[in-house]
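ok so for the tutorial part 2 we go from a plain amino acid sequence to predicted structure tokens. step 1 is just haveing the sequence, like this:
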Amino acid sequence: MFPRGRKLLLGVSGGISAYKSCDLLRRLQDEGFIVDVVPTEASLNFVGKATWEALSGRKVITDFWSSVETVPHIAMAKENDLIVIAPTTADLIAKLAAGRADDLLTNIVLASTATKFLVPAMHPEMWSNPATVDNVETLKRRGFIVIEPDLGRMTGSDYGVGRYPETSKIISEIYANSNLISDLKGFKIIVTAGGTREPIDPVRFIGNRSSGKQGFALAAAAAARGAQVHLITANTNLPVIDGVTTTNVETAQQMSKVLEVEFPHADALIMSAAIADAKVKNYRENKISKDMLETLELESNQDILAMLAKSKRTNQVIVGFAAETVSDLSKLELNAVSKLNSKSMDLIYVNDVSNGAVFGSDNTKGLIIDESENVTKVPEISKETLSEILLDKLASKLVLSNG
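step 2 — the prediction. this is what the tokens look like for a chain of 403 residues:
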């Protein structure tokens, strides 16, 4: 699984307010989170496994001894960036304070280094009991974020402090106490990745060296910042990104057809795929013999960005990529500006790929140029870091164009 950076584990303990976590799950999904639900055995008396699986769209493990071959308590501890336990009962608070690990949820908590949020919900007398007060203070000292319960009516006619907080309060506390960036929430972004292949015959093709690493890094980073992401990938062997819609294509024509359908509904397009400029005109249905391979007749592929630029709305943003074999920075800049202007792009990233540089690498360096021809020189950095820089600029443009 490709790291996404916006995964959250929702623990549910056995309180009557467990049903309210169904709404919390939905609202977290609206915020762009991929949510794994881990209910305690007691909580299943209030909300069943089938409900959690239906709402989350993910498999739910309810006990420590299920799927033991995957070591779920360690895997889930590592995979999730945040842990939220809602509701957190007095019993579970006591277990956590004592460092106990007698079920799946407490094992995950003990094995995780993620930021942990507790959402206590219980009767006022239980919340104010000295044992609970001491346990809460212990957990706070250990770094747990405790979201204070609300004042209100409890089960029956009881009234006081101990009520499950409003969902909006919980989500606000999550953002206030984490490093999450949500500047792309509400935007649909298309990212293309990889390199297209143009068939010569059923066995051979014309292709390029693009690995798709930059496109996948961009898609994962955009999703982590709250965007709805559609990744269109050509001939890559990278792991899928959880929560990102992915369409696999092979040729430039196939990618063009997907983009023609999807681009009108998108807020931004990041065109990081390496699209073949030409295809074989005399494609053969059967394998061509060696002595017939002396000549291949080529014809130009459609310029996808030029085609899309004709229908681009004023509030849409296009980010393009250009791979050049030019070491002179001034010439590299001139080439990039020409492409930027001719295809109505808002940003372009250009780099020198001479001698096989950049392709397949985890690092990159080049120039970022915007529509005003402002140039940002990018030293050698990771493709993940470049993704964040580009998305910072993209987010600013989206806010301005959609304000």
